[in-house]
Structures are given as structure tokens and as C-alpha cells.
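G., the chain you wanted modeled:
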Amino acid sequence: MNTDRKYKTFSSFYPYYLTEHSDGTNRRLHFIGTLLLIGCLVAGIVTGHWWWFALIPVVGYGFAWVGHFFIEKNRPATFTYPFYSLASDFVMFWQTITGQLNDELEKAKNEVNNRTT
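Predicted structure as C-alpha cells:
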């Protein structure tokens, strides 16, 4: 495992994560992927059909990676920070539902800019 990673805590990682999702279409694709992921999880539990669980990484990563590779044109954070990235997807999903995301995105942009200046 690479021990020289830049982010050692989730609270320091999340602002960076948000700035890597600055395009609204990318965020919508992440939202759809996370919603479908939750739907597959619930469907698998309710029906007892294992194949719903097999769809979870396909829908979760599929929508997100399309957003990164074709819209943001950046590398998904999942490759370097898999657990922080997964947790961040759910936090961003929740903040979208609760209407907090735009404010959090602005704070994240300011925080990341202040770190680099």
C-alpha cells in the first residue's frame, strides 16, 4: 500500500473530493449511480436474488467513471483513496438530497485554494 498519500483523514480528503466533482453533470451521474446502488442493495435484500448485489459495483462505478473520464476529464479518486471515495459518494449523495451540497462545494473550493496558495 502506498503510504505517501496526501490525505490522511476523511475530513481533509472530502474538500478535495468535492472539487474533483465541480461539473454538475458529473455530480448528477454520481447521484444516479449511488441511487441505483442503493436500489440494487435493497432489491437484493428484499428478493434474495444475489445478482442484484453483483450489479452494485457496475452501477455505482459505471455512472461515476463516465462522469470522470468523459465530463470532468480527471482520474477517479477511487483509484487512490477507495474507502474515502466510497464514503464521500454517500456524503455527497446526502448533501444533495438535503440541499447542502452547493454550500459545501463553495467551502471546499475555498479550502483547497487556500491550501495551494
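Residues 24-47 form the longest helix (24 residues).

Shout if anything looks off.
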